[in-house]
Design goal:
The protein has two domains: about 180 residues, Aspartate Aminotransferase, domain 1; about 210 residues, Aspartate Aminotransferase, domain 2 (3-Layer(aba) Sandwich), CATH 3.40.640.10. The chain is about 40% helix and about 15% strand. It contains 15 helices and 14 strands. A seven-stranded mixed β-sheet has the order 4-10-9-8-7-5-6, sandwiched between helices. It has a four-stranded mixed β-sheet with strand order 1-2-3-13. A three-stranded antiparallel β-sheet has the order 11-12-14. α13 packs parallel to α15. The protein is globular. The chain binds pyridoxal-5'-phosphate. The site of pyridoxal-5'-phosphate has 13 residues, from α5.
């Protein structure tokens, strides 16, 4: 049943929360992209609960959530088979002074789907995992430099990545200088950076599919080239894992990166991430080779937490049981098609653009000079949120999103385009309430 179109105007408890929370928590949240400066003023500040594809804020407003817990939700909120498996595991105890049997079960289950990858290491955050991959690559090659895809927005909160953004405070220049960039999905740019820094590059890290369509040929050539230069290819599957394909793009394209990093949707919102890779590199973090120098790879108190591993096992089994990828892609494609038609209908093709891919469809908002407009972005999100769609510019379909949800998202989209068009003609300020969203990666607050 489609919910009756409603206009959410009541955010008083959210406003109280917004006023207080920054006294307790720097940034007011534990991910910068959840922060107040990433949302319009007329938006929920805090969520009480979720079920399936819907969430509720502290004022009791209900929303369809488009980005499912920053893309960590792949099946749905409070998804029963996952919750039940977690509860069963919790009754057995959640953390022991030696590994739990569930660790090998998960290791075998995950690696089973990854031809060419022999070993796996768990952690709670994606950043821990990408940083571990970089450390391994440096140890394996004996080199210092990291090359990252310049357009790909985020790899880690650790210094090797953040030092290469505009938010460098607290990071020594010496560290920042160790990360350089190449143009994503561009072999020539990749070659140039290796020419510029001969025999210095330890690894290249990139998401396999982000904004441009890529081919197996490109990926294979890029990996082969990097190998010919004595460096390591790290494929960051944090977003593509359990989304572009099951388990991810490396299998979809039949290529074997040296290391791959996984997180987000693989445990349906639970804190389980992992690093997989070739034995010759991963084994550097082991304790079996007697004469080898010890490498402190990942060692965390909570890395073996059983309930999150159980969530990952249950999530994986649901992906094996149901056609989750097909469901998600079908919704994503329909959204892309219909949203494009609406953009065209409202004569907004020059200002609102839809970027790849059906599993992670993002919008970009351009002003009349073709520059990104934070004001227009904020206005569009404000208009979606007003209509019960918690929108951050990205629709990342998951298994609990329904056709009815999509219909409602599209109804809101149509109306949001209408207001957006008027704002372009009459001035954004007339329609936007409060300050515009700011980029996460900015030098000053
Ligand atoms: C591609 C990519 N890699 C790594 C990360 C870091 O993951 P986490 O936020 O779990 O540390 C993210 C998070 O957004 C990501 O999108």
């Amino acid at each position: 049943m489609i919910m009756k179109q409603k206009y959410i105007t009541q955010f008083s408890k959210s406003d109280e929360y917004r006023k207080k929370i920054h006294d307790f928590i720097p940034g007011g949240a534990h991910t910068y992209s959840k922060g107040d400066d990433q949302f319009p003023q007329l938006s929920p500040a805090v969520i009480t609960h979720g079920k399936g594809s819907h969430i509720w804020d502290v004022d009791g407003n209900e929303y369809i959530e488009c980005l499912g817990g920053l893309a960590s939700i792949s099946l749905g909120h409070a998804y029963e088979p996952v919750v039940n498996r977690v509860i069963q595991e919790l009754w057995k105890g959640n953390n022991f002074s030696r590994p739990s049997v569930i660790e090998m079960e998960m290791a075998e289950k995950f690696l089973d789907h990854l031809p060419g990858h022999d070993m796996i290491k768990f952690a709670k955050n994606g950043s821990t995992i990408t940083t571990a991959a970089v450390k391994l690559a440096r140890a394996y090659t004996g080199r210092k430099l990291v090359v990252r895809a310049v357009e790909h927005p985020f790899f880690s909160y650790d210094d090797w990545f953040i030092g290469s953004t505009d938010v460098k405070a607290g990071i020594p220049d010496e560290v920042s200088q160790l990360t350089v960039t190449f143009k994503a999905d561009d072999l020539e740019s990749l070659k140039q950076v290796f020419t510029q820094y001969p025999n210095q590059i330890a690894c290249v890290i990139a998401e396999p599919e982000k904004f441009n369509p890529v081919t197996k040929e490109y990926l294979q050539q890029a990996i082969d080239f990097v190998h010919s230069q004595g460096a390591v290819w790290i494929m960051d599957e944090m977003i593509t894992g359990y989304r572009s394909y099951f388990p991810g793009s490396m299998v979809k394209f039949g290529v074997i990166p040296d290391l791959a990093t996984w997180g987000k949707g693989i445990a349906n919102g639970f804190s389980f991430c992992c690093l997989t890779g070739k034995k010759e590199i991963m084994e550097l973090g082991g304790i079996r080779k007697k004469e080898q120098e010890k490498l402190f790879l990942i060692s965390t108190t909570h890395g073996g937490e059983t309930c999150s591993i159980a969530a990952a096992i249950a999530t994986t089994e649901e992906f094996q049981k149901h056609k989750v990828i097909e469901h998600n892609h079908a919704l994503g494609k329909k959204y892309m098609n219909e949203a494009n038609k609406m953009i065209e209908k409202h004569h907004l093709l020059h200002s609102v653009q839809i970027l790849q891919f059906p599993w992670h469809v993002s919008l970009t908002y351009l002003d009349s000079d073709g520059n990104h407009s934070w004001k227009l972005r904020t206005l569009f999100h404000q208009e979606m949120i007003k209509r019960g769609i918690l929108f951050q510019g990205i629709f990342c379909p998951h298994f609990s999103h329904t056709d009815n949800d999509l219909e409602q998202i599209l109804n809101a989209f149509d109306e949001a385009c209408n207001t957006y068009k008027k704002a372009l003609e009459e001035g954004v300020e007339k329609y936007l309430v409060g300050a515009p969203i700011k980029p996460v990666f900015r030098k000053y607050i």
